[in-house]
Amino acid sequence: QLDLAVTDAKSFVAAVRVGAQPLYREVDAYELYDGQATADGVRKALDDIASKAESSDVLLVYLSGHGEQVDNDYYFITQDFRMPASDDDAAIDDAIKKQGLSGGDLVTHLGKIGAKNGFLFLDTCHAGAIRLDTGPARINQESGRYILVASQSIQEALDRFDGKNGVFAYAVL
Known about the structure:
Elements: H1 5-20, H2 39-52, E1 58-64, E2 66-70, E3 73-77, H3 89-99, E4 101-102, H4 103-111, E5 117-123, E6 145-149, H5 167-172
Parallel strand pairs: 1-5, 5-6
Antiparallel strand pairs: 2-3, 3-4
């Protein structure tokens, strides 16, 4: 459990709604908190966005929670993750690979979204491990897609800053 992941995400959505008012007619927000923030829930939300988004839309995705790096790959750890019975590192890594939302999977789902411009915010530990240069959905080569991460691949993200938000959310806000 993280103390401020939900608060950070809600603060982000609220700030976007306020900041977007003079620029956009509407803001469609897909908010997945606690039990809704499963691997399948995130994939479904991204697929739903892909079915509706137009090239003139702007996509902002803010993921706040746990992140891990296993075998040089990034994994977003969703709410439905269950630790294995064994505390063996290999068993934990295997569970992360099977249950976590891999960076590749995330990039693939983002690549299906037709919005020309998009921004991915990863407010997790080890977020710098996400690989953006592989597969057909590359988001780092003149795609209009950008990413901001809370940590390097070998770092933990700090969950507290001012008692209201974590360090990353505070900086973004």
